């Protein structure tokens, strides 16, 4: 009981400073005896005020209530809102400090919310958390430190609020990209609008000609039957094509960027790209690999396909061995028999690293449309743009230029063998990948 008492009662900073003042009065009374009586009265007043403050603070069993409100799952790499609904049950105004025990993954030791509440007032406090890795996160208790208008003592109230949530691949942007997928472009995301080249061969209907229709689609037989009313053939994009996202889980994907690994950026982009492909009536599939094949999800358009992709992506972890492209080539050759769009998320830092894997990529590209997505080294970009002050800085900048040049050589080498490429900064990966997919659909390249 005594131990619980000491855990719930603290003295405020004001209380200590007041006692420092009382002690100074006693010290000065050594030279000015008249101050001794004043010091005694001040000490007595402080003791009585502290007792009254204690009675006021501990007069209620449940003085303040706080409830944490948040979603059942968090989106990785995004700002996730958390609400605390706080209610003051005292008949007077209080000052509070709330310390919400956040999951260990955030490593935030200075998190607190300060404020005040009027009598019987309820207030909603909102803060945001940005997780940078997938997994289970456990929120613990809510600690509220309460001060009355006296401000001498502090009462600590601990509210058990333990809750586990799962951090899934970034799903917040799904709605945004769904709308843009229907519009067939991502112009609002900062990219220029695509010009559709070619025409689909999948017939949809015959309709009356209106200004702006392609006159090359005129159906002369239908026009004759209509007595001279021009009729045109209407075509729609070809559907039910297979789109496979292939994720490299090797050590090269462990490289961090703004707290997240390249693997997590690839996972987030895969989730969005799969959703866009399903909206465009294509079949979405998934392959993960490193030194061995991890997961193979056949392409499909079933209602549960998106949930299956989300659950598989949630459980992916980086392996620290060299990736085996020979195994990947064998899997695609035997398991993916229909011509498909293969979007390979990987990374190459040197041309020699690409040359070792290029024969297997060329083998994949013979039967499928291969799109290789890899990452710019943004750290090197900063070094290249920095000024040079000495010989050492010049050497460092020269090396950075060399590595950046090799990235461009990698793009050129892949394009030479008919392999599409995207070289992008991690933060632009999703937009670039979805834009490229929509461009490929517009060009009827699959």
Walkthrough of the structure:
Helix content is 38%, strand content 27%. Helix 8 runs parallel beside helix 9 and helix 10 packs across helix 11. The longest helix is centred in the C-terminal third of the chain and has 26 residues.
Measured between the Cα atoms of the first and last residue, the distance is 73 Å
Query: Which radius of gyration do the C-alpha atoms yield?
Result: 33 Å
CATH fold name of the largest domain: Rossmann fold
Strand order of the largest sheet: 18-17-14-19-20-21
Compute the number of strand runs: 21
Oligomer: single chain
Determine the number of helices (DSSP H or I, runs of at least 4 residues): 12
Low-confidence parts: 1-5, 185-199
Give me the CATH architecture of the largest domain, please: 3-Layer(aba) Sandwich
The best one-word shape is elongated
Helix content: 25-40%
Instruction: Let me know the average pLDDT.
Output: 86
| Strand-pairing-aware structural class | alpha/beta
CATH homologous superfamily of the largest domain?
A: von Willebrand factor, type A domain
Number of domains: 3
Strand content: 25-35%
The profile of the biggest β sheet is:
6 strands, mixed
Q: In the CATH hierarchy, what is the class of the largest domain?
A: Alpha Beta
